[in-house]
Design goal:
Helix content is 26%, strand content 27%. The protein is an alpha+beta fold. The chain has 4 domains: 92 residues, 3-Layer(aba) Sandwich (Rossmann fold); 68 residues, ATP-grasp fold, A domain (Dna Ligase, domain 1); 128 residues, 2-Layer Sandwich (D-amino Acid Aminotransferase, Chain A, domain 1), CATH 3.30.470.20; 100 residues, Phosphoribosylglycinamide synthetase, C-terminal domain (Glycinamide Ribonucleotide Synthetase, Chain A, domain 4, Alpha-Beta Complex). The longest helix is centred in the middle third of the chain and has 21 residues.
């Protein structure tokens, strides 16, 4: 099968790695991809947001299945365009993408269908938003309505800070049209986690849980980022808690979509928080998360391409989405200055010590194995994966080309073992102004 994977980040490298292990795959194209995905397939220099050119490419190359990584093309309607061209694609429709594409509409949907979420109100008027924010006890959560690359959520510790954030969002238009409307909501206290669900429009199936670390610095300090690390499974989440989440949130969400006559096909990612009152929705996302995918895919005990085919052919009900009994920890290596201004083009040193050569390490479940990389000098043969995010090849050298540069994933029988392996591996890598958190999964 010929597969086109759309996107260029760490999530897409992880998906490419998963797809590349399928015996059904004959050719993998990644548009636009990065230096890491180039080792698994052929990068195609088409932007993830150039929908017409992507459709033309899929038609010209007779692509059997297209998989979409990032949210922007989904919200822009790539599913609808590909269907009109009679091209098979895994992504929700533009109509269903409001769950991520508009925080305002998503909140209205939750409120209408009694899906637990924070007390909130939506505004397109700065003065009204400010007046409402002043009625709330800080901290106060302020969210841009539209897509903002995972950075459109701010937490104000004071009313003065809330006013400044609202000015930045609504008057200075920090995120352009995306922040002209905002949601102002109460700050929920609890533990955050992510739950990933696959749906073929008829049935749905859980794919696993993860927890990501949004803040830039240790101790959950600093600005929100796209994610500085992740862990899977969520160590503190019990089966009973998961069952309650499914009963109160997941099942009601899909029932509500049916009531709204919306067929949801693809991945639905629930951003959740466990409070004293049980689970509550922070946000919906209409695709796999980043960097959660990087810790989920290595745990999949099934063929990823087969999952996508089951979605495309509406036979998910019989698909077995089992997980390996391993823990995965991801640490993100970022450029200095991220998530604001940062420089690109720095040479990345040390990756040659972590080459994904011939090391084959056993899968705890069936012994089929997964390709990994050897960590030299890290105490034995480590179970390590390196997923590229913001990298490029320049004059034969690997260089930085984005805010989040590399994802270092450690796998182990326990969280502590996985964590130890990830941090041992990243100590061998360096580039100028490299930044990472030291407390992921601590």
């Amino acid at each position: 099968m010929k597969v086109l994977l759309i996107g260029s980040g760490g999530r897409e490298h992880a998906l490419a790695w998963g797809l590349a292990q399928s015996p059904k795959l004959s050719k993998l194209y990644i548009a636009p991809g990065n230096a890491g995905t180039a080792q698994l397939g052929e990068n195609v220099s088409i932007s993830a947001e150039n929908l017409s050119e992507l459709a033309q490419f899929a038609k010209r190359e007779q692509i059997d299945l297209t998989v979409v990584g990032p949210e922007a093309p989904i919200v822009a309607g790539i599913r609808d365009l590909f269907e009109r061209e009679d091209l098979k694609i895994i992504a929700p429709t533009q109509k269903a993408s409001f769950l991520e594409g508009s925080k305002v509409q998503a909140k209205a949907f939750m409120h209408k269908h009694s899906i637990p979420t924070a007390r909130h109100a939506s505004f397109d008027n700065f003065e009204q938003a400010l007046t409402f924010a002043r009625t709330m006890a800080p901290p106060i959560v302020i969210k841009a309505d539209g897509l903002a690359a995972g950075k459109g959520v701010a937490i104000a510790q004071t009313h003065t800070e809330a006013e400044q954030i609202l000015r930045d969002f609504m008057i200075a238009k920090k995120f352009g049209a995306a922040s002209q409307r905002v949601v102002v909501e109460e700050f929920l206290v609890g533990k955050e986690f992510s739950l990933f669900v696959a749906s073929d429009g008829v049935s749905w199936k859980l794919l696993g849980t993860a927890q990501d670390y949004k803040r830039l610095r240790d101790g959950d300090q600093g600005p929100n980022t796209g994610g500085m690390g992740s862990i899977s499974p969520v160590p503190w989440l019990t089966e009973k808690m998961l069952d309650e989440t499914v009963q109160k949130i997941v099942a009601p969400t899909f029932a509500a979509l049916r009531k709204e006559n919306l067929s949801y096909e693809g991945i639905l990612y629930f951003g959740l928080i466990w409070t004293d009152n049980g689970p509550s929705v922070l946000e919906y996302n209409v695709r796999f998360g980043d960097p959660e995918t990087q810790v989920l895919v290595p745990r999949f005990d099934f063929d990823l391409l087969e999952l996508y085919l089951a979605l495309a052919e509406r036979r998910l009900e019989k698909f077995e989405a089992n997980l390996k009994p391993v823990s995965a920890v991801c640490v993100v290596l970022a450029s200095g200055g991220y998530p604001e201004h940062y420089e690109k083009g720095f040479v990345i040193e040390g990756l040659e010590a972590l080459t994904p050569s011939s090391l084959y390490f056993p899968s705890p479940s069936e012994g089929r194995g997964e390709r990994g990389v050897r960590v030299r000098g890290a105490g034995g043969e480590g179970h390590i994966l390196i997923f590229h995010a913001g990298t490029a090849l320049k004059d034969g050298q690997m260089v930085t080309s984005g805010g989040r540069v590399l994802n270092i994933i450690g796998l182990g029988t326990s969280v502590s073992e996985a964590r130890e392996r990830a941090y041992a591996a990243l100590k061998q890598i360096s580039f100028p102004k490299m930044h990472y958190r030291t407390d992921i999964a601590a």
